[in-house]
Design goal:
Blueprint lengths: L7 E7 L4 E8 L16 E10 L7 E6 L2 E6 L5 H15 L7 E5 L10 E2 L2 H9 L8 H14 L5 E5 L9 H4 L5 H5 L9 H12 L9 E7 L3 E7 L2 E5 L20 H9 L5 H10 L2 H6 L4 H7 L4 H25 L4 E5 H6 L1 H8 L11 H6 L12 E4 L4 H16 L1
Parallel strand pairs: 1-6, 6-8, 9-12, 12-13
Antiparallel strand pairs: 1-2, 2-3, 3-4, 4-5, 7-8, 9-10, 10-11
Enzyme class: transferase
GO molecular function: acetate kinase activity
Family: Belongs to the acetokinase family.
């Protein structure tokens, strides 16, 4: 059995059809001060697990604590049931109940961005914000309710992907729509903020390496977005009002001409639910290439024109976004690839960098194929770095820090 101390945090990261959990033990500085500054990195991962492909016959749950691993298949339709499976294993394998729980939420609406303790008032606000992220928030809310039922006396904290982007200037946040809609919260928010925060904190903690002034970070996975960071703060990003915008993704459209949605409503007589299904679940790589999985598309690409087109469209969209964000920054000092695809698929990195030499982006193809951490050519004015991300670790930091401040 593994153990964790009283300064442990259980993190629950809910996706639309999956969830991840991690149990961290966080350090304390000599003298009793919390060792939780953003750049400390003093956390120990005690256990971790996940449930994938919920709602399908291929759903699987696993949990690992130390050298012990539990795994099983299932047909969980909802996050609550799946979460209870991995939490039962956690009870069996780890000799402590978590004294705090942190949750990832994609969106908190226009009024909730900073990490916040979960209470009745916050839950009311989150329910009111479901329309801002209908694919993600219901799943996260179900996980919160399941965790509160299992740990009724344990303080729980919500951490928001949108928080990172609150530094964006009005020119990047405002949509060209009537002011009444803007005042109701219809604006550009940005997402993947917890991932971006981890990348920046990791870059900032590198000894002897000052944080570059102009950075583009590409978080590429089944959901994908890019952000422009100037002097450590977000100034623009590709996702907008919802996580459906920006570059095309595994099953999401990315940016569309708004007229497409009007056409679907008027000519095809589709209602909001049907349009939402097309935009969020039936489009992107899946629609073009027949699969939402990048590795599957790459395996098929030599013999399947649709798979090859999907890969090329994805790379092209990322390349355009890098160029646009570089322009917003006034140049580019560092390009970072992270997320499952960004970290592990060299073919996508090569497509994303091709033709960007005017921005100082020069990929070393041999280093890229070998999966090295630095993949730019020697002497290139723009460094290209490949990094792992860790949203759960950032959530643990915020949760511990907020509760420590509250006493």
């Amino acid at each position: 059995m593994s153990g964790a101390g009283s300064n442990a945090v259980l993190v629950i990261n809910s996706g639309s059809s999956s969830l991840k959990i991690a149990l961290f033990e966080l350090g304390v500085r000599p003298g009793g001060e919390p060792g939780l500054a953003e750049r400390d990195g003093g956390e120990r991962r005690v256990a971790e697990g996940a449930v994938t492909r919920m709602g399908s016959a291929e759903a699987r749950a696993w949990l690992r604590a130390g050298n012990v691993r539990r795994e099983q298949g299932g047909s969980w339709a909802h996050h609550a049931g799946a979460l209870n499976v991995v939490l039962k294993w956690l009870d069996e394998l780890v000799a402590v109940r978590p004294p705090a729980v942190g949750h990832r939420l994609v969106h908190g609406g226009p009024h909730v961005t900073a990490p916040a303790r979960i209470d009745a008032e916050l839950l009311t606000r989150l329910r009111a914000a479901v329309a801002f992220a209908p694919l993600h928030l219901p799943a996260a809310m179900a996980a919160i309710e399941a965790a509160r039922a299992r740990f009724p006396e344990v303080p729980q904290v919500a951490c928001f992907d949108t928080a990172f982007h609150t530094t964006m200037p009005e020119i990047a946040r405002r949509l060209p729509i009537p002011s009444a809609l803007h005042d109701e919260g219809v604006r550009r928010y940005g997402f993947h903020g917890l991932s971006y925060e981890f990348v920046l904190s990791s870059l900032s903690s590198r000894a002897g390496e000052p944080l570059p002034a102009r950075i583009v970070i590409a978080h590429l996975g089944s959901g994908a977005s890019l952000v422009a960071v100037k002097d450590g703060k977000a100034i623009d990003t590709t996702m907008g009002f919802t996580p459906a915008g920006g570059v095309p993704m595994g099953t999401r459209t990315g940016d569309l001409d708004p007229g497409v949605l009007v056409y679907l409503a008027r000519a095809k007589q589709l209602g909001p639910d049907a349009i939402e299904r097309i935009v969020d679940r039936e489009s992107g790589l899946l629609a073009v290439g027949g699969s939402s999985d990048m590795e599957t598309l790459i395996d098929r690409s030599a013999r399947d024109p649709g798979a090859r087109l999907a890969i090329e469209m994805f790379g092209y969209a990322i390349r355009k976004a890098i160029g646009a964000l570089s322009f917003a920054l006034g140049g580019l000092d560092l390009l970072v690839f992270t997320g499952g695809i960004g970290e592990h698929v060299p073919e996508v990195r090569a497509l994303a960098c091709g033709g960007l030499e005017a921005f100082g982006v020069a990929l070393d193809r041999a280093k890229n194929e070998r999966g090295e951490h630095l993949v730019h050519q020697a002497g290139s004015p723009c460094a290209i770095r490949v990094m792992a991300t860790d949203e759960e670790r950032v959530i643990a930091r915020h949760t511990y820090a907020l509760l420590a401040r509250a006493g």
